[in-house]
Each structure stands twice: as structure tokens, then as C-alpha cells.
Amino acid sequence: MEKKPITPEGQTKLRSELDHLKNIKRQEIIDAISEARAHGDLKENAEYHAAREEQGLNEARIRELEEVLSVSQVVEYKTMGVEDRVIFGSTVTIKDLESEEIKTYQIVGDAEADIERNTISFTTPMARSLIKKELGEFVEVETPGGVKEYEITEIKLI
């Protein structure tokens, strides 16, 4: 099976979430189910059904995290000594040449990508166009609205 890259920070975050779901959340749900059972008739017991549904979602997320972590390989990008070009793990600041808008993204693995946290998967068109490029280079990215041009204004390993 092919290993999927993940940053050390991403692995730590996923392991922490998995630990919380298995050791804390799972017990909270079991307690909620027990308490709801004590209220009698289960057919019309909304708390019981809600707790059972939450249990199913929690167990599904546990399985998902275990799968992701089992196929992940940590990329120690900070110790690679590459600071002059974009690599997996780099935090890149780019300027849209049309709108002058500045954006900053960290290039990470699929499992840790979250656009709201400005982390993008290395498999996205944006990340693929940035990887191996150097400070000051211009890149073209195919977007749903057409081709956009950006300038790389900063590269950091945070």
C-alpha cells in the first residue's frame, strides 16, 4: 500500500483527536446511552436515539482516523534544509497578479488539508503549481474561473 505524506504537526493533531474520541468521547456517549436507557421505553426515547447516532458517527471517525494514520508517512520537512524553494510542508505567500490579493498557504497531506486554516493538499492544482518553485517566481494555476497568475512573495518552514 502506498504511504501518504503527512506533516509531523498533522500527525500529532490527528493522533490527539483519535485519542480524545477513543478515551473520552466514547465513554461520554456510553454514559449518555446508559442514562437514556434508564428513562424506559426506547422506541420513543429521543435521547437514546440521538446518543446511538452520535456513537455511530464517533466510531466511523475513529475508523477513518486509524486508517489515515496507518497509511501516513511523516515528512520531516523542517530538517530537509530546503528553504529556497517550495516543498511539501512549506508555507507559501503568493500575490494574485490581477487583484493584488495576498494569500498564504501551507502545503500538507490530504488528511490535514483545511482551507479555513490555510492548509492545502499537495495534490491540489495550486500546490502542484507551487512545488519546486523559488521565491519571486511566477506561477499559473488553472482555476474554475480560468488561469490565474501568482507571484511567490515568501517561502517559510514554520
Unreliable runs, pLDDT <50, ≥5 residues? none
End-to-end distance, in Å?
A: 30 Å
Largest sheet: 5 strands, mixed
Based on the coordinates given, report the CATH architecture of the largest domain.
Roll
CATH class of the largest domain: Alpha Beta
Q: Could you say which structural class the secondary elements and strand pairing correspond to? A: alpha/beta
Shape: elongated
Widest beta sheet: strand line-up:
5-4-3-7-6
Number of strands: 7
- Number of folding domains? 2
Q: Whole-number radius of gyration?
A: 21 Å
- Please state the oligomeric state of the protein chains shown: single chain
- If you consult CATH, what is the topology of the largest domain? Chitinase A, domain 3
Give helix % range. Answer: 25-40%
